[in-house]
Write a structure and sequence with these properties.
- By secondary structure, this protein is α+β, with helices and mostly antiparallel strands.
- It has one domain.
- It is built from seven helices and ten strands.
- An eight-stranded mixed beta sheet has the order 1-2-10-7-6-5-4-3. Strands 8-9 form a two-stranded antiparallel sheet.
- α1 (20-28) crosses α2 (30-38).
- The longest helix has 16 residues, at 129-144.
- The radius of gyration is 17 Å and the shape is globular.
- 34% of the residues are buried.
């Protein structure tokens, strides 16, 4: 379940479980969810979403982190062993042609790891808000399994959305079998979302520039 929804002037959803809204969208469908939100008039969450929405601090700090060379990219998986994190399946299932490429970066000085997903704006702008949210939620779930935050950008590196968690402050579990291409054990952070005492502080944000007629 989500920890809480912050809808006072900006639409930032803080949650201890990355899959919350993706599960809701999957069970209800984006059309039905839109109807629920709009039933009885336009509620606060929609009014807030249409207002200017700056990126929250955690997402913005991640975006402003100086980046070195990526560990690997979507086009260049490691030939030495298992490539972790792996977004290929999630992109194939949910990203389609919208994703141009993605890159995984080494940890910064604070130990934070990130993936940057580059999307095609001409396809991204066809999505309404809830479709964008579902898209980001699905890819973020795949990234967070390995302790990575995720940012959505265009090819000019313009920030479109992000999911940021303080994974560096959490001791992960590790898969019992297999090692990554660097010979390290493979982390599995899925369990931390089920333990209240270990839930990371996460922020999920989407730039609220909607195509006309999205609602």
């Amino acid at each position: 379940m989500a920890s809480y929804f912050s809808v006072e002037g900006k639409l930032v959803i803080k949650t201890g479980e990355a899959t919350f809204l993706s599960q809701l969208l999957q069970s209800l469908g984006s059309t039905l969810l839109s109807s629920v939100l709009l039933w009885g008039g336009m509620p606060t969450i929609v009014r807030s979403e249409l207002a200017p929405t700056p990126a929250p601090n955690q997402v913005l700090a991640l975006f402003q982190t100086p980046l070195g060379a990526p560990v690997f990219t979507a086009e260049r998986p490691s030939q030495q062993g298992l490539t972790v994190p792996s977004l290929w399946l999630a992109v194939e299932q949910f990203g389609g042609k919208t994703v141009r490429t993605w890159r995984a970066y080494p940890p910064n000085e604070a130990g934070e790891r990130q993936i940057r997903v580059v999307v095609r704006p001409e396809l991204w702008t066809r999505y309404n808000y809830f479709e964008r949210y579902a898209f980001l939620s699905k890819l973020s779930t795949a990234a967070s399994r390995y302790g990575y935050s995720l940012l959505l950008v265009d090819r000019q590196n313009f920030l479109l959305g992000g999911f940021a968690c303080n994974f560096a402050q959490i001791q992960p579990q590790y898969l019992s079998q297999g090692r990554d291409f660097q010979g390290d054990p493979i982390p599995n952070y899925l369990g931390v979302f089920l333990q209240p005492e270990q839930k990371p502080d996460c922020e999920l944000w989407i730039r609220p520039s909607l195509r006309r007629g999205a609602f």
